[in-house]
Amino acid sequence: MKKIFIYYILLILICFSIPIIFTSNFSNKETSKKTSENKVQNQIEEPIYNYSKYGTVKLLHTKTNKIEELDIDRYLYGVVSAEMPASFEEEALKAQAVVARTYTIYKIINNGGKHKDADICDSSLCCQAWISEEDRKNKWDEDEREENWNKILNAVNSTKGKIITYNGKPINAFFHSNSGGETEAPIDVWGGSGYPYLQSVSTSGEDAYSQYSSEAEFTKSELEEKIKEIHSNFKIDFKEKDCIKIEEYTDGNRVKKIKIGNLELSGVEVRNILGLKSANFEVTISDEKIKFKVIGYGHGVGMSQTGADSLAKEGKNYEDIIHHYYTNVEIENI
Ligand SMILES: [Zn+2]
User: CB of 312 within 8 A of CB of 304?
Assistant: First the structure.
């Protein structure tokens, strides 16, 4: 409950901070710093596209709690190599580089003080994953190190300065591991709206990846305990027919509402409570166990990484991939 409460507070803060940042605070703060009239003019006309402003990233290392300032592309080498297997197609890696750059710049602009003096952290559970060059290379076999690292460098360098925009502003470029064939609208994951470029779209070929399907099993008492930790009033009689019943699905085929005992929960909440890989699941109850068959991996919003690789294998380039996952957007140079 505490976790979900924090998510709601964050969502409310983000919703209120975007208009403030984009209307007054952002341009006022920036223009006041500039002395030359030309520079002031440029700032007013192009508040987003002053690349020098986004040349560096203040990265919070969550393990040491230290902040490191990195050149944005050097930072992106660490993100792309942490977020996507180097064995993926070059065009998928390029799409990941542009998505990660956009996500980073969106975070810098809309930070809202989440990480105090840092722009972004290195955790995939919070912002986006990051790994140092040394740690990354050590995890690869020696004979593939150079080739893999060169693929990462090329993905970032060949898309230098490119970000995804909607109505001239960087998008909140969510991404996830595997959509299960169908991405999700953010309203069905976090509630609220305001991201017209994030709509449910389908991709074929995602079932070829190991991230596509998974299973989770719980004993009846394990399930009861886990739900009771969050909902202390939870009661269930497993002898009752339909004691667990999916009542509604989202546009992206995930569980929207599910009745469990005396509760009606969202699929996202069940996913969080039970640690399922996605909210796209089926439930079967046997004598002792409750089994969840899960499709896809991640929240399902925005670009699917395995979907990007699948599209690249079909011959799509990184721009096609981005336009597939983000509706009515443009890819611009900053
Ligand atoms: Zn973070």
Answer: no
pLDDT above 90 covers a percentage of the chain that reads 75
CA distances from 48 to 22, 79, 108 (A): 10, 22, 11
Residue type, 7: Y
**Which tokens go with 29?**
């703060």
For 299, half-sphere exposure in the C-beta direction (CA atoms, 13 angstrom radius) is 18
Nearest CA-CA partner of 297 in 283, 311, 276, 282: 276
Q: Distance from the CA of 118 to the center of ligand 1, in angstroms?
A: 9
Q: Is the pLDDT of residue 193 over 80?
A: no
Centre of ligand 1 to C-alpha 152, Å, is 22
CA 304 – ligand 1 centroid, Å:
20
Side chain identity, residue 282: E
Residue 232 CA, ligand 1 centroid: distance in Å: 30
Cα(233) to centroid of ligand 1, in Å? 33
Q: How far is the CA of 3 from the centre of ligand 1 (A)?
A: 15
Torsion sign across C-alpha atoms 316, 171, 4, 255: negative
Q: Give the tens place of pLDDT for each residue, 216-258.
A: 999 999 999 999 999 999 999 999 989 999 999 998 899 999 9
- Per-residue tokens: 222: 């394990």
pLDDT in tens, 107-165: 988 876 788 889 999 998 899 999 999 999 999 999 999 999 999 999 999 999 999 99
Interatomic CA distance for residues 111 and 116, integer angstroms: 9
Ligand 1 center–CA 33 separation, angstroms:
28
d(CA 71, CA 75): 6
Structure tokens at 109: 């602009």
Q: Where are the beta strands (DSSP E) in the chain?
A: 56-61, 66-71, 120-121, 162-166, 169-170, 175-176, 213-219, 244-249, 255-260, 263-266, 281-285, 289-295, 303-304, 330-333
This prediction's pTM: 0.82
Among 212, 214, 285, which residue's Cα sits nearest to residue 246?
285
